[in-house]
Amino acid sequence: MKILLGCHLLFAGSLAVVHGIHAQIQASVTRELIWSAPGKEILSPQFSPDGDFVVLVTRAYWPDGADAEGLPDSFFKRLEVHAKADPRFADPEIKMISLAGKVVCEARYGWNPSVSRDDKRVVFSEQEKPITGFRELASPEAGNGIRMYDCGTHQLTKIADPEEGYLDTPFFSPDGESIIYTENEAVNGAYGGSVGIVQFDLQRRQTTTLVKKETVAAAPCPPPGSKQSGLGTLTCSEVKGLTQSFPRIVLQAGLVGNDVLALLGTPVPSPGDMYTAQSYDMELVSVLNGEQTLATLGKRTSESDEDTSFQTVSGGKVLIFSKYWKLLSVATGKPLPDIGPQNANPKSRYSPDLKYYARAESTEPGQDPDHFVLYRTADGKRLQSLRKMTHVYGAVWNSDSNRLAIVGVPKNGASAMHHVEELIIYSVH
Known about the structure:
By secondary structure, this protein is mainly beta. It has helices at about 20-25, 75-85, 140, 230-235; strands at about 5, 30-35, 40-45, 55-60, 95-100, 105-110, 110-115, 120-125, 145-150, 155-160, 165-170, 180-190, 190-200, 205-210, 215, 245, 250-255, 260-270, 280-285, 290-305, 310-315, 315-320, 325-330, 350, 355-360, 370-375, 380-385, 390-395, 405-410, 420-429. It has a five-stranded antiparallel β-sheet, with no helix packed on it. Strand 21 (about 310-315) and strand 22 form a beta hairpin. The longest helix has 13 residues, at about 75-85. The radius of gyration is 22 Å and the shape is globular.
């Protein structure tokens, strides 16, 4: 969804003082691994806490929309025959991969995995129903719960199941003793989104609500005794279906140091979901020990070309995108001086130590990004252009800021008949 964020934060200073040693930072980039699963997509990669493994999702490539144009009917008939023989052949599979390219742990079937600090357990959202041939919408994902898989014992542990909707995006707490996950519903027509956050204590097997999921009627009821009637009166009491509404949307949640932060949106001027609301009041909230607002970010509207998100960095700080990437102290909730020239590219991915950022760029103006470029944060200097591909989808750093993983389609992998995506891991020093 394309949206606009009106910036209400005042940040001290325009450019941070660049220390001499920081200004001299250079990057030595080495390609450490190229891994692929021909015929499959590579989704939601992330490093293990120690940076020695990457956990990701693979799913058989089933062209849709523009990707499907021009393909012969025989191509889709083969997919349908395969789906009939194995209704789950295109369902998502969890894989943990070593830096040598070896798959060291696998689990079926699920989304958005995260690894424990000891590299022994993977937590993910289990795909309850076969989703082969279907889009990733709220309905096919309804009923999905949170599972934990032990890579050594191969034991699958049930963490939580939803009463309605589905559960998603789990990750381990900073101390590793609990799992945090989101409660999801249809919030944008058929598309799902997060509307609550829950913490599950692994020892006590108890849940704690961090952000309460609430449901209200999207259409307000007329005042008692008024003459208003018809459709408005009928729909005002509806809490399900197209009139379902959530007072707040959880746009992002994640670990930042020893805390859990959430980016929340409250609809303006009244409760309404993303399908009906025109704008949202945005705030960044600490939720692990009760809700505490760290920053109010103004309004975000559906007509915007901007993204609103945050990135975890080291030292108890967080980067927030509001017109450009800005630094905030989690401890005080106060803005910090800019870390370099203003970077207005919302798709940039910063190393946690803030020395570098990787930005997706296009070889030809107006085209989709086909490579990443590494920049020095302190002065915005372009350091190195990484491998050019047909498309690049995303990048993620490890917590030590010395490895960068990129997913994209190589030059010889763009054919739907022989689709290939690659995970490329670079060492950065």
